[in-house]
Design a protein that fits this description.
Blueprint lengths: L11 E6 L8 H8 L3 E7 L4 H5 L4 E3 L8 H16 L5 E4 L4 H8 L8 E6 L1 E3 L7 H17 L5 E4 L2 H10 L7 E3 L16 H10 L7 E6 L8 H13 L4 E6 L12 H5 L6 E4 L4 H6 L3 E4 L4 E2 L3 H8 L4 E4 L14 E4 L4 H12 L2 H14 L5 H13 L2
Parallel strand pairs: 1-2, 1-4, 2-3, 4-5, 5-7, 7-8, 9-10, 9-12, 10-11, 12-14, 14-15
Antiparallel strand pairs: 6-13
Helix pairs in contact: 1-14, 3-4, 8-12
Length: 386
């Protein structure tokens, strides 16, 4: 509404839908708030981080696994929320919300525009069994049914985009590629001092001359944890002066996760640190970052963080990882579930400080294309399209 002599811009009301890690979208939200957007966030966390930022938050129920009755309850809950708010755009950032949200909008008279970001293909495309094959069939069926009801599908890596196009799961001219969710590089401009690094290494009982090799992520099998542990064991047997750090939360309700006792049983050649809030500090004392995953992600955030910190990377040649790592340029790509190749490339980096420095410096340049400022602008440009 315009007042006499003044012009007032109307804010675009956007609903962000995620799950337990939706708070990772806060920097993205804060940038777009400066561009005449306002947000309401739907997530499964307690929402405290959003309340601290005065961002409206609604908690909803979401089951990560396939569950027809629970999924139907989520669809109905989302539908009630959508009816009670004036959202102009709905933006999903997780696998299940990407198809539960469009289901919730079916037969609604006034529908907001629906944008969904495919943040990887998840467990059902990472593991092989009759159960997961059936889930893949259902997933494809749902995508074909819903594709005309989605205004824009945003992919984070080339492989997922090609797969959806090949399967005809997206409408022509209704998809775009935006690589990753972005990373706020301003948080990585200042590094720890040499003294601080020494003190932190001492606190973690890391020998002064050891090369530190680190892996960070959710501690489930499909992240390649077993291969990291085996690499640590082999390095130990070879009497290499290296410390392997494994960082991340276990998932007690996930049958593919690990118990803390199981992880601690490898303490003679690997340090399990559990869930940490000092990731940047841990990366600052590392020499090599490893991600031997075979989980179909969009673009793993930990790879962006490691790159921003100037670390050389050894990762598997899989969708998402190979969008960040160029083999022989800023790290090495190895085949999935190949311990021999993983150890071979770790040894190559372990043995050459010059190569580690070269890859690390290249990463500091490559990471610029994943800058959150650029990523958020690409999203904003899409939101402006009618």
């Amino acid at each position: 509404m315009k007042k006499k002599g003044t012009s007032q811009k109307i804010e675009t009301h956007i609903c962000i839908i995620g799950s337990e890690d939706v708070d990772a979208r806060i920097p993205f939200i804060e940038l777009l708030e400066k561009k005449n957007c306002r947000f309401t966030v739907l997530g499964t966390s307690d929402g405290e981080s959003f309340r601290n930022k005065n961002i409206p938050f609604i908690r909803y129920k979401l089951n990560r696994e396939f569950s027809p009755f629970k999924d139907a309850a989520t669809v109905l809950q989302l539908r009630r929320i959508f009816k009670n708010h004036d959202f102009e755009i709905i933006q999903t950032f997780d696998t299940k919300p990407s198809f539960l949200a469009p289901l919730s909008l079916l037969f609604m008279r006034k529908k907001p525009r629906l944008y969904r970001t495919i943040t990887g293909m998840g467990r059902i495309f990472s593991l092989n069994s009759i159960f997961y094959a059936f889930q893949r069939y259902l997933y494809g069926l749902i995508q074909r049914i819903l594709k005309k009801r989605v205004d824009m599908t945003i992919f984070q890596n080339n492989d997922d985009e090609k797969y959806f196009i090949q399967k005809k799961w997206v409408e022509k001219n209704r998809y775009s590629l935006i690589k990753s969710s972005g990373i706020d590089l301003k948080n990585y401009t200042q590094n720890s001092s040499v003294k601080e690094k020494k003190q932190f290494r001492k606190k973690l009982n890391i020998p002064e001359k050891d090369i530190v090799i680190i892996m960070i992520g959710r501690l489930v099998k499909e992240k390649g944890v077993d291969y990291f542990i085996e690499a640590a064991r082999q390095f130990h047997l070879s009497r290499n002066k290296a410390t392997f750090l494994l960082v991340g939360p276990t998932e007690s309700k996930n049958k593919n996760s690990y118990s803390e006792n199981k992880l601690l049983s490898h303490s003679s050649y690997m340090k399990y640190l559990g869930k940490r809030n000092d990731i940047k500090q841990l990366l600052s004392i590392a020499d090599i970052f490893v991600l031997p995953t075979y989980y179909r992600e969009g673009v793993p955030r930990v790879l962006l963080e490691a790159s921003a910190m100037g670390l050389p990377i050894v990762a598997t040649d899989i969708a998402g990882c190979n969008d960040v790592v160029s083999n022989g340029v800023n790290g090495f790509l190895v085949p999935v579930k190949d311990t021999v190749k993983l150890i071979e490339k770790l040894n190559e980096l372990y043995s050459s400080a010059e190569l580690r420095k070269k890859f690390g410096n290249n990463n500091k340049k490559i990471i610029q294309v994943f800058n959150l400022d650029l990523i958020s602008k690409q999203y904003l440009d899409l939101y402006k399209m009618k």
